[in-house]
Specification:
With about 180 residues, the chain is an all-alpha fold. The chain contains 7 helices and no strands. Keywords: Membrane, Transmembrane, Transmembrane helix.
C-alpha cells in the first residue's frame, strides 16, 4: 500500500479542514510573513547604516527566492499528476518547498547574525517542514516523493545559491584547529 493510499479520504471532514489550515499557514503564510520581515529588517538595517547586516539579509532573501524556484520550475517540468484530483501538478510540493526555503534562509541569517540561535532555528525549521510534508500527504494532494524531492531540491539549489552569494561559512583551517 502506498503512503498516499494510507491516507485515502482522510482529507474529507473536520480533520481535512484543520489539516488544510495548518498546511496553508505553515506552508504558505508563515514563509511569506518571515521573508517580508527579513526584507523590512534589511531596509531598517540599511537606514541605520548597518550595510553589512542589510546585505546578509538581502542575500538570504535571494537564497529563499532560488529555493522557491524549485517549485515554480519543477511543476511544469515534471507534469506529475496528484494522488487525487487537484488544480496544479504534483511534483514538487510547493508548500514544502516554501517552508524549506524559508527555513534555510532563516538558518543562514542566524549563522551570520545570531549564531546562538542556529540550532534552535534549524530544529524548528526542520520540524515545520516535516509537519507541512505530513499535512500534504494527509490531504492526499502529494505523493511522498513530492515532499522529499521538494526538500532535497531546496537544499541543493539553496546551498549552491548560498555558496555563490558567499553565505556559507568559510571552512576552519587546520592551523586554527591546532591552535
Amino acid at each position: 500500500m502506498s503512503v498516499a493510499g494510507a491516507f485515502q479520504g482522510l482529507w474529507r471532514g473536520t480533520l481535512g479542514q484543520v489539516t488544510t489550515i495548518v498546511s496553508d499557514v505553515l506552508g504558505l503564510l508563515l514563509p511569506s510573513v518571515l521573508m517580508i520581515g527579513v526584507l523590512l529588517g534589511a531596509a531598517l538595517a540599511w537606514y541605520r547604516r548597518a550595510r553589512h547586516e542589510a546585505g546578509i539579509a538581502l542575500r538570504a532573501l535571494a537564497v529563499y527566492a532560488s529555493g522557491r524556484c524549485v517549485s515554480w520550475l519543477g511543476k511544469p517540468l515534471f507534469i506529475r499528476q496528484r494522488p487525487r484530483s487537484y488544480a496544479q501538478f504534483s511534483y514538487p510540493s510547493g508548500h514544502v518547498v516554501s517552508i524549506a526555503s524559508a527555513g534555510l534562509a532563516a538558518v543562514l541569517l542566524c549563522v551570520w547574525l545570531a549564531p546562538k540561535l542556529v540550532r534552535w532555528v534549524a530544529i524548528t525549521a526542520g520540524a515545520a517542514t516535516l509537519l507541512v510534508a505530513f499535512t500534504r500527504l494527509l490531504l492526499g494532494v502529494h505523493w511522498l516523493t513530492d515532499t522529499v524531492g521538494g526538500v532535497l531540491g531546496v537544499l541543493g539549489v539553496g546551498l549552491v545559491a548560498a555558496s555563490v552569494l558567499r553565505l556559507l561559512p568559510k571552512p576552519v583551517s587546520a592551523r586554527a584547529c591546532a591552535a
